[in-house]
């Protein structure tokens, strides 16, 4: 299969755009578009594979340190396309036939500004340098937020007021490198663009990829469909990951929470790899190989 990026290097925004362009050039049946722009004006690319009427969603890199999720999703897109073109089964699934009945939307990097700040520093911040220095102290080694210091996975309208109080109790009262969810839900252009896409497309399933912990989160409140636990267990069996319940500041305000709460359909957070963010690039192949079967299974469950 053609390589669309260097697997031994972190994937920044420029590398992502190049990979998406190469993927589209290599496989003419791939569609691409932008769901919107980030705070700093970077387009947020989406890849569409398949022609069916029952779309599912895979989204990565809500958080800046989690760019490996972008790498996983681009590599999976390439492998998926190669199997569609060849007609060969992919982990025993006829993906060519599956993707005539449905389609998959892949958003590899929801937070391009944050990824760029972490990987390349203030030179990527354009006119927001002074503000970002105040928030970060000039150090982006542990930066998770977007360019306004908002944690995108705390910015969804699912228990938002409860989460806001929990943040304040922990001393998080304003823009920060991580865990500040903003002053209102969907205040950030990145989360607003993703929510609008979901409202427009009415995805059958939604999977948000994060790192780390090798865990699968599946539940949010009493609107969680009964089938969600069954799906989570199947995904866990395919990957060796653990079915889990979130705690503390991870228990509200996330994309998976909002998706379940609004659409009453199965939504999942999948925490790839184990260790400390950012995960070592040397572990990329092992992490990807461990979850590839799960990624394929997500198309059919």
TrEMBL record:
Query: What InterPro entries does this protein map onto?
Result: ENP1_M14_CPD (IPR034274), Peptidase_M14 (IPR000834)
- The answer to keyword Protease applying to this record is yes
Needed cofactors, names only, are: Zn(2+)
- Residues forming the Peptidase M14 domain are 9-299
Alphabetized, the UniProt keywords read: Carboxypeptidase, Hydrolase, Metalloprotease, Protease, Zinc
Gene Ontology, cellular component aspect: extracellular space
SUPFAM superfamilies reported in the protein's UniProt record: Zn-dependent exopeptidases
Which GO MF terms are attached to this record?
Answer: metallocarboxypeptidase activity; zinc ion binding
**Domain of life assignment:** Bacteria
Q: Which Pfam families match?
A: Peptidase_M14
CDD domains per the record? M14_Endopeptidase_I
Gene Ontology terms describing biological process = proteolysis
Q: What PROSITE patterns does the entry give?
A: PEPTIDASE_M14
Keyword Protease in annotation: yes
Give the residues annotated as active site.
271 (proton donor/acceptor)
List the PANTHER family hit by this protein, alphabetically.
PROTEASE FAMILY M14 CARBOXYPEPTIDASE A,B, SLL0236 PROTEIN
The entry's family comment says:
Belongs to the peptidase M14 family.
Name the chain's protein: Peptidase M14 carboxypeptidase A
Q: Which organism is it from?
A: [Clostridium] cellulosi
């Amino acid at each position: 299969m053609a390589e669309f990026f260097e697997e031994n290097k972190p994937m920044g925004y420029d590398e992502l755009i190049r990979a998406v362009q190469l993927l589209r050039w290599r496989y003419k049946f791939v569609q691409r578009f932008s769901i919107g722009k980030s705070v700093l004006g970077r387009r947020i690319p989406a890849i569409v594979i398949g022609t069916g009427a029952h779309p599912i969603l895979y989204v990565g890199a809500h958080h800046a340190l989690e760019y490996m999720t972008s790498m996983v999703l681009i590599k999976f897109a390439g492998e998926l396309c190669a199997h569609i073109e060849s007609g060969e089964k992919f982990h025993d699934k006829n993906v060519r036939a599956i993707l005539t009945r449905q389609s998959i939307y892949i958003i590899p990097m929801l937070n391009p500004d944050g990824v760029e700040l972490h990987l390349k520093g203030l030179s990527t911040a354009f006119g927001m340098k002074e503000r970002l220095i105040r928030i970060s102290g000039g150090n982006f080694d542990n930066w998770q937020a977007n360019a306004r210091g908002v944690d995108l996975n705390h910015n969804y309208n699912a228990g938002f007021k409860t989460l806001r109080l929990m943040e304040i109790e922990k001393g998080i009262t304003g823009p920060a490198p991580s865990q500040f969810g903003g002053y209102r839900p969907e205040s950030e252009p990145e989360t607003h663009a993703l929510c609008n896409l979901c409202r427009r497309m009415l995805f059958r399933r939604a999977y948000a990829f994060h790192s780390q912990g090798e865990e699968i989160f599946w539940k949010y409140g009493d609107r969680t469909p009964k089938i969600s636990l069954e799906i989570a267990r199947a995904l866990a069996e395919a990957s060796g990951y653990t079915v889990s319940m979130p705690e503390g500041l991870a228990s509200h305000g996330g994309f998976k929470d909002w998706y379940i709460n609004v659409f009453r359909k199965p939504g999942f957070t999948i925490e790839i790899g184990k260790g400390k963010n950012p995960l070592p690039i040397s572990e990329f192949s092992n992490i990807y190989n461990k979850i590839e079967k799960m990624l394929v299974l997500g198309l059919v469950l």
